[in-house]
Amino acid sequence: MSLYEATVPPFLQILGALSGLLTKAEAHCAAKNIKPEVLLSARLYPDMLPLTTQIQLACDFAAKGCARLTHSDVPSTPDTEKSFAELQQRLANTIDYVKGYKPEQFEGVEARDVKFPAGPDRTMTLKGQQFLSHFAFPNFYFHAATAHGILRHNGVEIGKRDFLGVS
């Protein structure tokens, strides 16, 4: 399996699933007469990031992960979304961005150095395969799963099939 096949399709699968989760969340708000900003600002615990930020970070780890692996320019996306529609647009933009990568861009990246920020004032360097499997994917899936958990905790009727995008 190429690193392209190991990277791009999984990112696209879960980004698409997150879009589906947001569609169900918006419908839940309408059906239960809940203001959307209540759900968008929901957290699993007070010291955790809200739903909106979880979606933004999942998008960032997918887009920036592909860029760093391929030594492409790392996109900068300001975190300005405040509605379901704006988050859906961010997901759509991220999906389009990730779809733009071609298999040949990933050739040989498993052994190339990838330098990336690891906090506000620190950087790390890992080989491409380790960057993907030990940093980009774990962070991406953490934020995607946390978004799912926030929605489920707040009564949105979703399950594992929704998280996987196969419902």
Rg, Å, rounded:
16 Å
Contiguous low-pLDDT stretches (5 residues minimum) are none
Largest sheet: 2 strands, antiparallel
Order of helices and strands: HHHHEEHH
Helix amount: 55-70%
Q: What is the topology, as strand order, of the major beta sheet?
A: 1-2
In whole angstroms, how far apart are the ends?
26 Å
The 3D shape can be described as globular
Class inferred from helices and paired strands: mainly alpha
Task: Report the count of strand segments.
Answer: 2
Which range does the strand content fall in? 5-15%
Q: Please, what is the average pLDDT?
A: 97
| Individual helix count | 6
3D structure, described in words:
The protein is mainly α and 167 residues long. It is built from six helices and two strands; from the N terminus they run H-H-H-H-E-E-H-H. The protein has a two-stranded antiparallel sheet with strand order 1-2. Helix 1 packs parallel to helix 5, helix 3 runs parallel beside helix 4 and helix 3 runs antiparallel to helix 5. 34% of the residues are buried.
What is this structure's SSE topology?
Elements: H1 3-32, H2 36-40, H3 51-69, H4 84-99, E1 113-117, E2 123-127, H5 128-153, H6 160-164
Antiparallel strand pairs: 1-2
Descriptive tags:
single chain; 2 strands; mainly alpha
Describe this structure in a few short sentences.
By secondary structure, this protein is mainly alpha-helical.
